Amino acid sequence: MRKRTITTAVVLVLAIVLSAIAGEGAAYGADDPEPKGQPGEEALSVAEAHAPDGASIGITDVNRPIRAADELILFTREHASDKTDGNAYSAAVTAEYFDGKYTVTDVKARVGAVPIPTKGFVLFGHGTSEQWLLEHLKAGDEVTVTGIDLPGPVDGRRLQLEDGSSVNVDGVDEERSADGVTLYTSAYGTSTPPYGADTAEYIVTGDTVAGIQSDGAKGTFIPANGYVISASGAARALLASVEVGQTVRALNLDIPILPERYAQIRDIVVPIDDVNGGRDANEVVLYLPDYGATTGTNAWGMELTVVNDAVTNIVGFRPDPANPGGFLDNNSPIPADGYVLSIQIGSAAYAALNGQVAVGDGVKLVLDNQTLYKAAKTAYDAVNPKTREDNPGGYDEATNTPYPGLRGPDQLIVYDGGYGQPSTGTNPWGLEVTVNADGKVVSIGGNDSAIPDGGLVLSGHGAQASWLAANAQIGATVRVNREAKTVLLLFTPESYLDKAEIGFANIGRELASSRERFLDVPYGEIENRIAQAEQAYAEAEAHLRDNGVEGLSDILNRLERFLNEAGYMNVESRGVEHRGLWLRPKEQTVEQVREHLTAIKALNINAVYLETWWDGYTAFPTDNPLTGLNPIYNGFDVLGAYIEEGKKLGIEIHAWVENFSSAETKKGLCWKSIPNGRCSAARETLTNRAQAATSNITISTRRFRKRGTSSRRCTRSC
Q1: Do residues 48 and 146 lie in contact, with contact meaning Cβ atoms separated by under 8 Å?
Q2: CB 106 within 8 A of CB 72
Q3: What's the pLDDT tens digit per position in 107-157?
Q4: Which of 106, 201, 349, 673 ranks highest by number of CB atoms within 10 Å?
């Protein structure tokens, strides 16, 4: 059965809810901010799509993102990516070539990016174009396109090269052909068979050549997230012009692409975004027993409990019968001999698994898949924009003013020394990657970043910020092709060594700063970790030189661990320091509270800010007629339990009461009693009662930090 890797969100009915509740950025819909137009960018004047009922519609452009309301974009296999634009408020109609005509094979509404078929195209429409697609086309319809020369259908297994040429693939995961091209995937093993001087091999990941090998004594490493092209004899000349960083597309080939961490359920491969972390929008998180008794997640998702490699329980998005209009949290118990796979409702995995997975289904969990290579390429919008002409999309047409840094919605901008400013000048709503003069990524995150001498900054907003977050790594090589207007991010085994060198430099500066400020850090232990990291670095360098990448991961993991520990140790942690975390209590017994606080104590946390009021209910018993103890506790006084158990462990318990709200929940007894009010009287009363109930607790607003660990709780519906 063909494996499918989930990469795109496919939840229609909840798309708008997710945007508002899960904290996603602005998207484009009938009642949402529209994409900004691009003055000076003319639409195609004669291109049209025709439906079988005689209706037709103009096509705005080919192979570019939606940039204005009501646009219709045609995507073909010549697009820079194998998927369409990711605009979540558009419809996509996929058509493929059969028996001399193009037939609609799929119609999707508001699911974001969809795959582009190699023997067809995708019509991608926003606004009125979206409505036209949904009204006039359905699966099985013949659709025609006029005014554009579509790429001809490709028959047989072929590789499409960046220069537009293509070569035939003679075999997949089998013995090499003497004068042919053979592909090797992860289904074959971890490396190709040894080969001689008449063969060259190309490592491909993300449709990009990430490495070229000619020494075949031990074969070539096959990345789980890609494949290897092996060209022998006469076929070697066909690929002689291919270079690292160039695009290669496998056409009419089913290649398994496996991420570094994933769970496979039936034929579905689900990438895992985080382990024991907060479940953010669109994420899949794995919860292991050392996380705690339960996942603590909210209602917006589904969870699979797995024991002995089989699903034992499924919790989905479900209404709360005791609270009309409310929903029950996922919050699954984490088994001591298993784990919980938690899938946020915006993830593509949710749509693929919801209603399909069943108790008893087998699950394969992989957390250490060897990838070692990663390459990604995308188009950028402008370099050093200063005027509207430099980047029309960098202007807000509604106000006729430029966006900060002239970085517009869903854009990727390159800033270097030619920009003439010390920093990018962008607003907080994006993500930036700083690249040094050697072309290596040295930092990821933030906005309005300083532009390094001889280096550059990649600045992304919206979809392009997500692209940077998914593909940029410290130590990666960055190549900007100004002629093609593309950015390449390339990470190879050698990049791990580059990453370590950047880490050594950072730790050295931080350690020197600690000495200058006489900070109370364990200098001897830090220097010991640095020495261990240097030894691991030398081992990795020698192993890569003498043995290749096979077995390299263990050494690289040790190298990274030593560097991380050295960095953590260099954060001063004084004995009187206040280390706190915020949490919303979900426990229903004293034992659960004790277990949770014991785990918190083990992390050296000495203060807990406990939320005591949300959704119109309290976390403690009260006789106030306008509210009451939250029904999730079944009468249990969770605040009282935290106070008592916190005293035993020496942990301060601070009552957290929200006096101001940015939205109305329409939940709780207060709202039901006063449907047109905002419960201000009840809030004031309960605030006073909470203060009285916790008068023996010191309320503090000091910030905290923690040496060697980080604690993150999701405070949104994610």
Answers
A1: yes
A2: no
A3: 999 877 888 988 899 999 999 999 999 999 999 999 999 999 898 878 889
A4: 349
Residue 625, SS3?
Answer: coil
pLDDT digits (tens, 9 = 90+) for 432-485: 999 999 999 999 999 999 999 999 999 999 888 988 998 999 999 999 999 988
d(Cα 680, Cα 686) in Å, to the nearest integer? 10
CA torsion 204→208→214→219, rounded to 10°?
-10
Token pair in block for residue 356: 């399909």
From the list 634, 638, 628, 576, the residue with the least C-alpha distance to 607 is 576
* 3-class DSSP assignment, residue 204: strand
What is d(CA 617, CA 309) in angstroms, rounded to the nearest whole number?
39
Whose tokens are 């979809």? That residue is 463
* pLDDT tens per residue, range 473-518: 999 999 999 998 899 999 999 999 999 999 999 999 999 999 999 9
Q: What is the CA radius of gyration of the chain?
A: 28
How many CB atoms are closer than 10 A to CB 544? Answer: 18
Element (H, E) at 559: helix 552-569
Q: Which helix (H) or strand (E) holds 61?
A: strand 61-62
Torsion of CA 677, 681, 684, 690, to 10 degrees: -100
Going by C-alpha positions, the residue among 301, 308, 299 that lies closest to residue 285 is 301
Longest CA span, the chain: 86
Which two tokens mark 520? 């109370």
- Note if the pTM is more than 0.70: no
Contact 397, 408 (CB under 8 A): no
β-pairing verdict for 120-126 and 90-98: antiparallel
In order of 318, 358, 409, the CA distances from 322 in angstroms are 12, 26, 42
What are the pLDDT digits (tens) for 565-605? 999 999 987 766 788 999 999 999 999 999 999 999 998 89
For 544-549, the CB contacts below 8 A with 24+ separation are 544/493, 544/494, 544/497, 547/218, 548/218, 548/221, 549/221, 549/372, 549/493
In this structure, what DSSP letter does residue 152 have? P
Asked if residue 308 lies in contact with residue 363, where contact means CB atoms within 8 angstroms, the answer is no
H or E segment to which residue 339 belongs: strand 338-344
The CA distance from 658 to 298, in Å, is 19
Instruction: Pull the structure tokens for residue 380.
Output: 């950028």
Q: What is the dihedral of CA 345, 348, 349, 351, to 10 degrees?
A: 70
Range list of H helices, 571-679: 590-602, 638-649, 668-673
Closest to 467 in 3D by CA, of 433, 498, 422: 433
H-helix or E-strand spanning residue 607: strand 607-611
* Helices 523-547/493-516 angle, 10° precision: 160
| Residue that has been written with the tokens 């009501």 in this structure | 70
CB-based contact 615:326 (threshold 8 Å):
yes
Q: Is 186 exposed, middle or buried (0-12, 13-18, 19+ CB in 10 A)?
A: buried
pLDDT digits (tens, 9 = 90+) for 258-282: 888 999 998 889 999 899 998 988 8
Q: How far is the C-alpha of 124 from the C-alpha of 89, rounded, in Å? A: 10
Tell me the DSSP string of 521-545: --HHHHHHHHHHHHHHHHHHHHHHH
Distance CA(608)–CA(606), nearest Å, equals 7
Mean pLDDT of the chain: 85
Which candidate, 191, 226, 183, 220, places its Cα nearest to that of 206? Answer: 226
Helices H / strands E in the chain, number of each:
11, 40
